[in-house]
Amino acid sequence: MARGRANRFGLPGGLALAGVIHSIIAIVLGGYGLWVQNRVVTGLSNIFTNLPRDADPTVNDARIVHCNTGGGGTPRADGTLVNPDSSKRSLLVTIRFLDAKGLEQCTGSETIRDVEPGRTARWSVTGYVNGTPASCAVGTTGSPFVPPTAPPIQPVTPTG
Questions:
Q1: CB 28 within 8 A of CB 122
Q2: Rg for the chain (alpha carbons), in Å?
């Protein structure tokens, strides 16, 4: 390719010039490949390091301040949680809306982004269900309710 062009335009060097041109193209393409690889690795790294963690009811002191299981199929719970870590975290709080027997009717969750170390953050979760739940409880997405090592969290009955 480069040799034919060099000969066509009357440039001296033939194979040497073709080698130089190919070398320049290879260096540019190699640099572009490294740049793309860096962008992809950085992007994936950011995705996996900024994933929210499940808010553990005991470790994060997740508390339900208000539980409204009113009609319309959209129960709502409001509360707070604490980031006890030494660095900023995104936390995922999951609320279970329970019937009178304590069986789960639905769940709702919210991600609280960038909670500073030692700070308390507010959350608000809405569920969608056919029927009217009797109570709200803090849960996790990783287990049916709370981790077996944590003490049981008592459901909160509706306050209004």
A1: no
A2: 29
